[in-house]
Amino acid sequence: MVTCCLPRKQISKPYTYLSQNRLHIVFLEMDCILHTYKHECKMAKNLFQHSAIPLSDESIFVAPDTRNSTLIKKQAAMARKTKEEAEQTRKKLLETAALLFWEKGVSHTSLADIASSAGLTRGAIYWHFKDKLDLFYAMSQQVVPPYHQIYDTMERNAADNAARSLWNGALEILTNVSNSPDIRRILGILFFRCEYVGELQSLQIENLDWIRQLQQRLIRIIELAQQQGQLKPGIDPVAAAIAWQAQQRGLVQFSLLLPDTPLLHSQPESLLKPYFSGVFKPDCWLAHD
């Protein structure tokens, strides 16, 4: 009886041997193999050396650790490349969707339009997004991190000067909208290019919840300003928080509708001063060196 030990990558296949002129197929389970990979390779090498089969490729007898290490490196490189390509495709789809949503409106833009404009197939869209709603939601979420960063900064700095932190946060929001075409486009879509009915109604509910969460953060900051003696007498922190949000939303929408308004770019402070002068004691929101 002659036994041919194959490389480990073929262990799931049947082992074949010739005995008493009959061909027998023996299926071996992984946990039943008694020899290590290195030992199997040595046996296979000896077999081929004593057979008529030419041994032209010694690569299969390279130490398994070396071959496995090389294979792992190649697989890792391929995985990184595939991941990078997938991220680039996803980014392209989001950018294309934002352009078309802004130009045509959300309801008049189909997934086929987005795929065609991006030079991709609809299958590429479904690989990254479940449907049009999922794609729209992913696009809208791109403006969330900058807002959270601004609110996080306001809360951290409020302990030193709450009014000043609100002033800086308001300026930063206007500056971001003014300087970032991507943020401007997405906010423009959310404000002016979609109707929050049907499948988009759930997103409107989520947006309202997010606005309320930000409002609670503002209330805490303004209450801290009250404790610091910065509020004018008779100012209610809740009312002041709602007014701050309304002012910011109004100025952002105004800048989207009338982007050429000079004050929005050159002197945003002059647009904020009426609110701060009415809510806070004189100049407490300004830096004093």
UniProtKB/TrEMBL annotation:
Keywords annotated in UniProt: DNA-binding, Repressor, Transcription, Transcription regulation
GO MF term set: DNA binding
Ranges of residues in domain HTH tetR-type: 87-147
Feature: DNA-binding region: 110-129
Organism: Craterilacuibacter sinensis
Annotated protein name in UniProt: TetR family transcriptional regulator
